[in-house]
From TrEMBL:
Domain Acyl-CoA dehydrogenase C-terminal: 233-364
Record key words, sorted: Oxidoreductase
UniProt name for this protein: SfnB family sulfur acquisition oxidoreductase
Pfam families, A to Z: Acyl-CoA_dh_2 (PF08028), Acyl-CoA_dh_N (PF02771)
Superkingdom: Bacteria
Residue ranges constituting the Acyl-CoA dehydrogenase/oxidase N-terminal domain according to the UniProt record: 18-110
Example GO BP: L-leucine catabolic process
Organism: Phytohabitans rumicis
An example molecular function term from Gene Ontology annotations: flavin adenine dinucleotide binding
SUPFAM superfamilies: Acyl-CoA dehydrogenase C-terminal domain-like, Acyl-CoA dehydrogenase NM domain-like
Amino acid sequence: MLAAAEAVAVAAELAAIFARDAAERDANRLIPLVELDRLSESGLLAITVPAPYGGADLPTETVAEVFRLLSAGDPNIGQIPHSHFVYVNQLRLRGTDAQQKLLFAEVLAGRRFGNAQSEANTRHVRDIRTTLTADGPGRWRLNGRKFYATGALLAHRIPVLAHLGPDGPLHVAWVDRHAGGVEVIDDWNGLGQRTTASGSVVLRDVDVPDDLITPFAVTFEGPQTYGAFAQVLHAAIDAGIARAALTDAATFVREKSRPYPDAQVERAADDPLVVQAFGEIELAVRGSEALLAEAARAIDRANADLTAASATAASLAVAAARAATTRAALDAGSRLFEVAGTRSAAAGLGLDRHWRNARTHTLHDPAAWKVQHLGRWAVDGTPPPNHGQV
């Protein structure tokens, strides 16, 4: 069981290892199975298991920093376990004691949860059609098709968001990755985050017992930090991308860039315009990292005393972090070419992966809506919606 400082240290060590081949994995779309197994073996995937069930029960502040570090090494590896942590949280909030004993034990043993939540070709992201249909006492049949199922390909168990009965309330079915009727298709073809395997999950008459179903819709009937927790981990991924882009740009400028003649300097790193640009990028990245850390602390404060006011404060802090990390990641991923010069655009270097990763991952939730919620709060005190996406 890892303490907070140990978890951060292990994440930093793994990030350095994952960074070595990140460009190669991106270029050749190599799914990081070996790396994910190493992540499982490290114990990091179990750091939020509650103490009564044998876990470290570490705070959100630590989890966010772990995600930021892993994503600075390789944001694909940072994103793959995102849903694992979100559904560990769902189990913590809505699972029965028996369900928690069973599934938390799997997490402690290094097993990974994926996700089958979003669906393609529906009206919007919260329009779910996958359904659990009654099939005798205590048994259900699960049918549907999911997309953006990050983590499912390499998971041991896949939490599936589905209606309990036709048009019934949303529940989570905890299905085995290799259960009959479960098909995971590696059809993800994004321009960035290329190795997250965020493809499709097809569910055909999957047999699910009552004791592997947990309620989901009731999560949002009162104050909650479930959505803020999920969102702050997305912010941590973007903050990691931003930091990695800045780090790689600095290395390139020091080691490979040629100075522009008008600067009249021996090294590109001494060009005052280059130094100014680096300062501006560093400022944005540091600002986003600070907002990320504060958002995580706000969630921890809300969890310690959960009220409508504390949940609202957490959601607003997370909205600010999401907006800031989105801008920082996109800016750093683009401006690295400005500071590094023409030769940095060579395709074989793979420096473009930072912008591609940022552009792809930041589309997960529109940053403009985070700013809208902040603006509405600032103008007239309107709290953000309680639907789990802020």
